[in-house]
Amino acid sequence: MKAEIIAVGTEILLGQVVNTNATFISEELADLGIEVYYHSVVGDNPERLESLLKTADNRSDLVVLCGGLGPTTDDLTKDVVAKYVGQNLVEDVAGRKELDLFFTRAKRKMTSNNLRQVLVFEDGIALPNETGLAIGIFYQSSTTAFLLLPGPPSELRPMFLHHGKALLTEKFPQADKLISRVLRFYGIGESQLVTQLADLIEEQTNPTIAPYAKPNEVTLRLTAKVQDEISGIKLLDKTESAILEEVGEYFYGYGEENSLEAVVVKLLQEKKCRVTAAESLTAGQFQATLANVSGASAIFAGGFVTYAKEQKEQLLQIDPALLDEYGVVSEECAKAMAQNARTIVGADYALSFTGVAGPTELEGQPVGTVWIGLASETEVKAYLYHFTRNRSYVRHSAVMAGLDLLRRTLLAK
Amino acid sequence: MKAEIIAVGTEILLGQVVNTNATFISEELADLGIEVYYHSVVGDNPERLESLLKTADNRSDLVVLCGGLGPTTDDLTKDVVAKYVGQNLVEDVAGRKELDLFFTRAKRKMTSNNLRQVLVFEDGIALPNETGLAIGIFYQSSTTAFLLLPGPPSELRPMFLHHGKALLTEKFPQADKLISRVLRFYGIGESQLVTQLADLIEEQTNPTIAPYAKPNEVTLRLTAKVQDEISGIKLLDKTESAILEEVGEYFYGYGEENSLEAVVVKLLQEKKCRVTAAESLTAGQFQATLANVSGASAIFAGGFVTYAKEQKEQLLQIDPALLDEYGVVSEECAKAMAQNARTIVGADYALSFTGVAGPTELEGQPVGTVWIGLASETEVKAYLYHFTRNRSYVRHSAVMAGLDLLRRTLLAK
After folding, report:
1. Residues in chain A within 8 Å Cβ distance of B46
2. Cβ pair A192, A254 in contact under 8 A
3. pTM
4. Which domains does chain A have, with CATH numbers?
5. Do the Cβ atoms of A409 and A374 come closer than 8 Å?
6. Residues 273-292 of B with CB under 8 A from A
7. Which of A123-132, A364-373, B47-56, B383-392 has the lowest mean pLDDT?
8. Region B208-229: what's the mean pLDDT?
9. Closest-CA residue in chain B for A134?
10. Residue A287: which pLDDT band, with cuts at 50, 70 and 90?
11. Residues above pLDDT 90, as percent of chain A
12. Cβ of B48 and A38 within 8 Å?
């Protein structure tokens, strides 16, 4: 099974957009046991796209096209492919219903070009778009399968994960299955993780171990090539044990769509504990991150953003003398913020964040210096961190460190 | 002048590495006035690379190849291209000197495969590698120019910037430069924007107008092809005026790296106004977004996250009777939140956010229903929105709507 990926969009050829869709689809197809032989990018130009389609049709069994399904005239992927394979375009009933609903809810008038987004090949299969309006299309010609996906990653990813993947698995069952498992780590860098697991990664061929670095975390994808699921799970279990023996202290959870905040919210729910926060440099980002998780309201009632010194005094009732003596970037300030936030809101735990996001230093302390306080019924402690890179990375690092601190505290409870 | 970019590397086809080299080279070539028509990626496979080279040679004047210049056997780009254009490989004297120096300094014995890295085409030009060992190569055949660059971005970028760029400018002086400008819009969908500008976009060839949708905003990139910068700016100004005549009410700023929050923070600084917020469904995201902008501390001291009803009562001192009578998803609640937050913190403006993020409805109101309150010294108003899609999109939409509300209020001041 040979596959290739064609991204359509002049903005990619101008260097304005990185072709991360090809990366994502490649990773997903590898999971399905489908090998990708080529990526191509072509601009919004019908002749060049058609010529590329012809080449792809001749050399591949599956052609995945990304982009060019939107409402405007430069969105031409659907028209060009339809013409190339000789298919008429018809309206997809379910897609049209969603489109109408969208404009009714948004109380906006629908312009007629939007209808282009819900056209499907007459013998094709429409893929619903859960996060946008343009439907996807799967079509099997006598020689080649075509999968058309929307360009925005926020639409392409859920469409592929929730619809495309199952469809390809059904249409192209591979003798060898790839079964994979994602392990998530916080608190260890990619190079360190790979160094500690070097022997394992080199010797190991089934399952393979692929590290992947994300901002402030690392995931390992274990992929076993097997004929049945049970032997796959056994292989994965064995490798996972060997990995966790080396770096288990940094492991926090499983799964591609998992996150540190999801693990923390679940733990809080299980332990029936409530949390609050007082945030200075993170300015609400810790609380907003908790509330990313649906069901957060069971464990989080509210908290404080105390960006300036005056609001640490006013909203959190911290003694101005303490702030004058130790400064706001201090253990004492972090502890007072956490303790007072916990008391005022009446939560089981309170986190506090105070430090230097940058770009310039504060109270003589360098960018990246962050104190995180954690107050519980029995004690209050503060922890000092030195984060690196830019303002936004320092703030994200602080939020992740706070989540991990809370996770470890809850696990030790 | 037609160019294309070929990246060589199986790791890209497996989705382990993102092809950022193509993005970088595209941007740089656009700057030089050289148009890129295709990107391709092929694995470490000589037959497939050769077939791609043939296609590229036929359709392009310049082919930039990235990757596969290293010392190992799967680094095959140089051999395949040399064979394709019929060139012998000879040692580059300067490259060899650097290579020897490297191993002498590192006190390591050089393995013989390293010599492959300093081979150049007999009629080619070697490009020095300031941050690695593999030299680059420029070669002009009777029809096509080939530029071979190393794969690691840390080597490719300096090599292109310090050597490749000057070489291409000298070999291919372009009469025309590309000058571009990005206009940013909030509050209008891509399809609506394009409909309103349909005539302009269709008729306009210089500058071209390219729309691009991002979450909750749309940008238009105007690109003029000109011989000098002054006439380019004139062309861009003229087209910009025509665009703003149609959709100027949604325009909020210029530039690829600009944002609604940056514009709002700048306006607040200019007007010497301070803002606070009380956030329910957004749970701190509005305040964290403001604090994305460096310098936010001048206009933002702090605020509230009041996720649960009890914290609206406690932290914001809202009368429980009001919440019981109208509910938390109500105009009255949004107004009380904004008004009380403004009074408590002592800011010039206060925003409030209350609504239904989902996944389930609240107080009988559907997911996406959001009230945003805005309190100033003279008045307090609340605005009703119906956002769509998922939890995270509803919350992001609310933050963006709040920013725009504040922006318009400040502009009207």
Report:
1. none
2. no
3. 0.78
4. 2-171 (3.40.980.10), 177-254 (3.30.70.2860), 260-412 (3.90.950.20)
5. yes
6. 277, 279, 281-288, 290-292
7. B383-392
8. 87
9. B191
10. very high
11. 76
12. yes
